[in-house]
Amino acid sequence: MPLVPRLGSGIPLVARTQEMRRLRAALARAGRGEANAVLVAGDAGVGKTRLLTALAEDAVAGGALVLTGRCIDVRDGGLPYLPFAEALEPLGAAGDPVVAAAVRARPALRRLLPQGGEPEAGGDHGQVAAGEREAARRPQPEQDLGQLQLFDAVLGVLTEIARDRPVVLLVEDLHWADSSTRDLLSVLLSRLRGQRLLVVGSYREEDVHRRHPLRGLLSELVRLATVERLVLTPLEPADARAFVAALAEEPLDPDVVAEIAERSEGNPFFVEELLASGAHCADLPAGLAEVLLARLERFPAETRRVLRVVSVAGEGVSHAALAHVAGLDEAELDETLREAVQHHVLVIDDGFYVFRHALLQEAVYADLLPGERTRMHAGYAARIQETAQGRGKDAKLAYHSLESRDFGTALPALLRAMYEAEKLGAPGVALRHVEQALSIWDAVPAEHHPDDFDEVKLLDEASYFSGTSGEPERAVAYARSAVEALPPDAQPARAAHAWRRYAESLLALEGTLDEATEAIERAWQLLADEEPTPARSWVLAARAAFLRLSDRPDEALESAIAAVSTARSVGSAGAEASALITLGTLADSAGDATEARARLREAERKAHEAGALNVELRAMYFLALSYADQSEMESALEHAARGTARAEETGLTWSSYGMELRARQLYLRYLGGDWPEEDAGRTGRGVSSAVAARILAIWVLFLVARGRFDEAAHLTGELRRQWAVDIEIALNSGEAAIHLAAWRGDHVGALRSTEELVAWLEKIEPSLLAGIRAAAVGMPSAVALAAEARARGDHRAVEEHLRAGGRLLEHGRRCATDGSPRSGTLGPEGRAWLARLEAAASGLDGPADPALWADAAEAFSYGAVYEQAICRWHEASARLTAGESGTAALESAHAVAVKLGAVPLRDATRALARRARVDLPGAAPSTPAPRTSPLTDRERTVLERVALGRTNRQVGDELYISEKTVSVHLSRVMAKLGASRRAEAVAIAYERGLLTTPAE
Description:
Elements: H1 17-31, E1 36-42, H2 48-61, E2 65-70, H3 82-93, H4 97-104, H5 130-137, H6 144-161, E3 167-172, H7 179-190, E4 197-204, H8 213-221, E5 227-232, H9 237-247, H10 254-264, H11 268-276, H12 286-294, H13 301-313, H14 319-326, H15 330-342, E6 346-349, E7 352-355, H16 358-366, H17 370-387, H18 393-403, H19 407-423, H20 427-440, H21 455-468, H22 472-484, H23 492-506, H24 513-527, H25 534-549, H26 553-570, H27 573-589, H28 593-610, H29 613-629, H30 633-649, H31 656-672, H32 689-705, H33 709-720, H34 727-743, H35 747-764, H36 768-791, H37 795-818, H38 828-841, H39 850-859, H40 865-881, H41 887-900, H42 903-916, H43 937-947, H44 952-959, H45 963-977, H46 982-991
Parallel strand pairs: 1-4, 1-5, 2-3, 3-4
Antiparallel strand pairs: 6-7
Helix pairs in contact: 1-2, 4-6, 7-8, 9-10, 9-11, 10-11, 12-16, 13-15, 13-16, 14-17, 17-18, 18-19, 19-20, 20-21, 21-22, 21-23, 22-23, 23-24, 23-25, 24-25, 25-26, 25-27, 26-27, 27-28, 27-29, 28-29, 29-30, 29-31, 30-31, 31-32, 32-33, 32-34, 33-34, 34-35, 34-36, 35-36, 36-37, 36-38, 37-38, 38-39, ...
C-alpha cells in the first residue's frame, strides 16, 4: 500500500520554483538508480517542511515510497534513532510482501521496528514486549558491533525495497538529532551508490552555531559527491507580497500587504502569524512573540540581559554604547555577545550589533518591564549627549529622551530633528517629530520652551509637513487649530500667514473653495492697508490664485499684477513666481498658450532660484497641463515626468502638486500606451487614503485594460466610497467600472454605472471633458442592450435602452456646447471623445456607421494610443457588419493590444477576426473564441473543485479559505448562473463553456 508523509504546514508553496526544480532533479536521479542526498537548510518558518511536503507529494504521485521521520527537541540525552524509527515504522505494518520479507531478513531492525516481523518464519510477527522495546531503544555502550549491524540493516532494507520502486527518506529537524541519529545518517549518506534512493534532511541553519555537534558532520557530508546542500532563503519582497495576498481570504489593501511582507522579512511563518493577528497587525501577535522568545530561554541570564539592552537601541548599537548602557566590562560583554552572535540571534553589520530578525527585536523589547525600559532609554540618551555627533543625533536623542520621560531634553531635540528631516527631503519624518513636540508641549515648563517657538508656530509647521507628506486632511486640521490659537495681539503679518496657510491647505480638499476664499480674504484684510512686505506679496499672490478658481478672472489678474509688483519691490522671488503662475493660467484660459507657457517657465525658474519648492512644482504642473489641454502628448508627458522627478528629488512626492504631477503623468501614460509596472499604482504607507485613491483611480484603468478583473472589481468598489473626495477619483474609477462591466459582458451593469457617473458629475461640477468622456464610454453598452432586445423582439426594452442612449448623447453634446473649457475652446481630447460618442450613438437605431468610427480613431491620433485602438476595433466590427473589409482596422487594434498587454481588447479582436475569417499576425486561427464569463477568477476556481466532487470544507482546505467563504462564493455562482443547486451550477457552467475539464 502507498505510504505517504504527514502533511506539512499547509502553506501555499510560493516562489520556490528553483528549489523544487533541484529537488525534483534529485528525485529523478534516484529514479534512474543514482542514489543521492540533499541537505536543506533554512531559518525556522522559512518553508522547509512545506517544500519537503511538496516533494513527497510529487514522489508519491510518481509511484515512489516516501518515509518521513523527525527529530525532536529533547535536551536530556534525546531518543536514539528516533527519526529513523519513525520513518521506518510503517514498514512493520506494510502489507507489501516485498517489504515484509526485507524486514524479516534483518533482525537488527528490531531496535527501530518494535512491531516489525520476527526473522523466523512462523514467529509471532511484531509482538515485542513493551519492556523489551524500551531496552532496544536505549543505547548500549558495549554493542558497537550491534550498532554497525543496525546501520547495515537500515541501508540494506532501503536498498532492497528500492529495487521495486524509488524510495525517498525525509529526515527533518536535524539540528535536534542525537549522536546515534547523526552517526546513522553519516553512514547512510557515505554509502549511497546505485540504489534508487533519495535522502533529504532539513535543519535550521540559525541553530547550528559554531560549537553545534551537527556543524562538523555537515562539513564532512557536503564534500561527498552524492550530497548537495540547498539553502532556503526568505522570500523576495515581491514574492512575499504575493504570498500574503495568497493567504488572505479577502483582498487586502496594498499598503497592508506591503507592511506584512516587510515586517515578516520574507519568512512564511511570520507572514501567517502577522496576517492572523489582524489586517493592520500593529502589535506583535502573542503566539509569534512566544515562539521567538522561546529561542532565548536557553541562553544564560547575562546574555538575555544584553539582548534586552540591544532591543532598546531600536537600531544597530556599537560595542562601546552597549558596554555603557549594560554596565558590563569588556570581557563580560565580549562573552555574552559571542554567545548571541554564534547562535545567530545578533549579527554584526558595519561594526554595529543588530538583531538578525527585526521581529525578534520587537518581541524582546515588548517583553521589557516598564522600569528597565525607562532606565535603558535614559542610558542611551545620556550616551548620545556625551558622545554622539553628526546626522541623526537629534532624532536619536529625541527618541530615547521621550521614552525615558525626559521631555525637557526631548522637545528641543525634536525641533532640531524636524528641520534636519526637512533638509533631507523627508517631510513625513519631520511631521512625526513636530507632532511629538506638540504632544509634550504642555508637559514642558514654559521657561524651558525654545525662544523662537510657540504653539501657533508648531501647529503651522505641522500643517505644512502634513500637506507636503500627502496628508491634506491633517494639514487642514492643524492649520485650523493654528488660526484658532492666534493670540488677540498677534502681529498682522503673522496672523495673515496663518490664515493664508489655512486657505491653501483647504484647497487640497474637494468642495472647500468657498471656505478657502473666505480665509484668504481674511488674510488680505489684515494686510490690505500695510506697507509692501514679503508677507503682503505672498497673500496677494495666493489671493490671485483663489480669485481665478472662483471664476473672477479680472480681479485675479489685478491681484496677480499687484503681487508681482510688490514682490519685486521687497525682493520676494517666491511670491513673484507664485503670482506669475496665476498670470500664466489666466493666459491659457484666454487662449494664449504662448504667453501662458512663457509666464510659467519664468515662474519655474524664479521659484527654483528662490528655493520655493512647492511653487516650483506648481509651475511645472500647470506647464504640463497647458500642453495636455492642447493634446501635445509628448511635451505634456515630458513636463509631467520632469515635475514628478523633481518632487521625488526634493521629498515632496506626495505634496499637493507633487501628487498632481504624478497623477497627470500616470494618466498620460495610460492614454499614450506607455504602460508602467506594478509600483506605479502604489503610494506607500503614511499617505492619506484620499491621496492614495487619487492614484489608484487611474491605476484601476490599467488593471481593467490588462484583464485583471478581480483586482479591478475590488478597487472600484473601494474607490466608490471616495468619489466625494475628488472629482478625478469619481471620473477615473467610474470609467473603469464601466469598462469592467462591459468587458465582462454585463452591459446592464455598465449602463447603470454610466448613468450613476454622469449624474454624479452633474451634481458635483458640470464638466466639459468629463461629461463627454463618461457618456462616450457608456454609449456602446446602451447600443448593445438595444440590439439584444431588438433581436429577441422585446420592443419595450428596445425603447428603454434607446432612451438611455439618447440621454447620454444629449448630455455629451450639451457639455460640448455649454461648457467652459480651461483653454477657452474644446481641445483635441474633448473633440476626440465627442467623435467617439457620436460614432457609438450611430448604432442605436441600427448598424453603426464605420466612417464615424474611423473619424473617432483619427481624432485620437494625437497620441491616445489605447483609445484609438478601441475605436479601430469598433470600426472593424462596423465595417464587417456593413459587408466591408475591416482587416486593416482589426490588425491595427490587435497590434496595439498585443504590444500593451491589453488582454480583453486582444481577445475581442481575435474573436472578431475568427468570425470574419481573418488571420491576425501572432494569433492562431484555430484558437476557440473566448467566452465572456460572469464568474470571477475565485468563483471559477471554487466551481472547478466542486465539479471534482469536493465538499465545501475540502474546497476551503485546498484554497486556504474558510468553509463559510466557499459557501458565499457558491451562492454567488448559483445566483449568476440561475441555478438552485451545486450540481446544476456545474452543469450550466459546462454547457456555457465556463468550465473546462478540471485537473486534479
